[in-house]
Amino acid sequence: MILFEHKKTIIENREIPEITAHLDVELHSHPIVDGKIGKLQSPMIHNDYENLSHFFHKHNIYSDGEALLRTKYNIIHGDRLKANLFGSTLERRRWLKNFFLSIPGKPLIWFLYSYILKGGFLDGYQGLVFNILKSFYWYQISLKEYEIKCFLNKK
């Protein structure tokens, strides 16, 4: 979301001291807008890709944050916007993410959704690689959640 009046917006932020204390990373920032949200008429190109090392480093940090939020801090989302299947677009999206986070097999489900249903296969080899990497990201999060839960139970 980029086309909205910033003065009428609250940003849902969740601090993760282990991540944000020493890195300039905004994890889970989500704007809640009290007003209209514009829509672009053409695609916005977001080139945040340097190389695979950069991609792996960035997603390793993100997966640390996701796992910490859902285990140590027991937070999935902020408290300003409620999850509601029959609510606004944002509330429905939040409900769907909560549902996705509650089911087993997230890496495979993500891959099938993104590569098959969303047409990632149309991007050829690059689409295959990207969707495999994104699926592995969900696997990383699951492994890190397990590791954190085991560590927390030992204390």
Description:
This protein has 155 residues and is mostly helical. It is 52% helix and 5% strand. It has a two-stranded antiparallel sheet. The longest helix has 31 residues, at 124-154. The mean pLDDT is 83.
Considering the chains and any ligands shown, give keywords for the structure:
155 residues, mainly alpha, two-stranded antiparallel ribbon, 5 helices, 2 strands, 52% helix, 5% strand, globular
What sequence of helices (H) and strands (E) makes up the elements?
A: EHEHHHH
Give, in spatial order, the strands making up the sheet with the most strands: 1-2
Please give the number of β-strands: 2
Taking the alpha carbons of the first and last residues, their distance comes to 41 Å
Counting helices, strands and paired strands, the structural category is mainly alpha
Strand residue content: 5-15%
SS element count, helices: 5
Classify the helix fraction into a percent range. 40-55%
